[in-house]
Every structure is written in structure tokens, then in C-alpha cells.
Amino acid sequence: MKRVSTNLAWIGVIFSIASTVLLVKYYGEILAGRQVHVFGLTALFLSMISSLSLFVVYRQWTVLLNENALKTQRLAESHGFDLKGVLLVPNWTYFTFVLFWFLSFLFPEVWLFSLLQVVFFVTFLHFLFEAARHLQEEKVRLYRVLFDVEFRPIIKERNVLTVLLLTLITFGVYWLYLIVELSKEINEFLDADERTMKNLEVKP
């Protein structure tokens, strides 16, 4: 049973917070005239673990939603149901974001890499939110016709600009919350969909 790893999501969030705290401590030591590199090195190490963990989580979001969308399309086609198309999260948005993350890490002096990292991550989120919204809308329509039941949307509708604004206002706290929350929502959505497929019969 494939699901988003909430453990990895929590690891990414906790280590991100810890690395930020240590980084602040590190710069505080520098401003005080003390060269204590242990804080900086530890912050870098924790930040790397956090990023790698979250890369896995982001990939799981993409793969699981895309797999479910394709599964939904096959179900609809097998019963002659006309879907309004299948909206997938493009893989290139994820891999391009990861590529520029590594480039910005290796060449921090090249600000363009950091900018492109943000641009492609925002693009990735836009497609992810749209794919989740579209998939749930089609699920509601599909199950109403085939199973004569109401399928309740679980993944909340989100706008990438609103998420970006809230993340900036809260200095990143909202995004850390959203990582765990969205992972849970996707898992709950997949669980509900699986129960529906197992327990309901298609109307003749």
C-alpha cells in the first residue's frame, strides 16, 4: 500500500527548524567575535537531511496523485464514463526544481540558480494543487454516476499565491505546517478512495 511517508515529512520539518535555530546561533557567535564552526557545520548537515527527506516527500505527492489519476481514467474508460481529461503533475517541474536546488547549493554565489529553484518549485506546487483539485472533482462525478454515492473531497483546495504569501508572512512556518498537513490529506484521500473501490458495486 503506497502512501506518503509522514515520518519523512516530520523529519524534514523538525530538522529544518533545528538547522535554522543552529544557523541563527552560528551567526550570533560570529557577531560576538567568536568563531564556533560547529554550529554552522551542524546546521548544514541537518539542512541537507531535511532537504533530502522533503525531496522524497514531494516526489511521493507527485507519483501517488498521478497514479491515482491514471487509475481513475482506466476505471472510467472500462465503464464508458467520459472524464473531462486527466490532469497530471508534470515530472519536469519536480526534477527541474531539484536540479536548480543542487546547483544553488554547489554555486551559492550564482543568484540565478536560487531564483530558478524558487520559480520551478512554485510551478511544481501550482500543478500539484491543480491536479489534486481536478482529480477530486472527477472522483465526485465518477462515483456519483457509477456508485450512486457522494465522494467527499479530502485534499483542500489551495492557491499557490496564497500559500506563498502565508509562507512569507509566517517566515516559513506555514509551509512547514503544510508539508505535514498535505501529506496526511493525500493519504486520507487514497484511503477513502480505496475503501470506495472495495466496498461499493458499480450500478448496472
Note the main attributes of this structure.
204 residues, mainly alpha, single chain, 6 helices
Commentary on this structure:
The structure is a single chain. This protein is mainly alpha-helical and 204 residues long. The chain has one domain. The chain is 77% helix and 0% strand. α1 runs antiparallel to α2 and α3 packs antiparallel against α4. It is elongated and about 70 Å long. Keywords: Membrane, Transmembrane, Transmembrane helix. InterPro entries: DUF4234 (IPR025328). This is DUF4234 domain-containing protein.
Beginning-to-end CA distance, first to last residue: 29 Å
What is the H/E order?
HHHHHH
Net shape: elongated
Mean pLDDT metric: 91
Kindly report the oligomeric state of this protein: single chain
Instruction: Output the number of helix runs.
Output: 6
Question: How are the SSEs placed, and which strands pair?
Answer:
Layout (H helix, E strand, L loop, with lengths): L5 H26 L5 H42 L12 H16 L4 H36 L13 H10 L3 H27 L5
Helix pairs in contact: 1-2, 1-6, 2-4, 2-6, 3-4
Short précis:
By secondary structure, the protein is an all-alpha fold. The protein contains six helices and no strands.
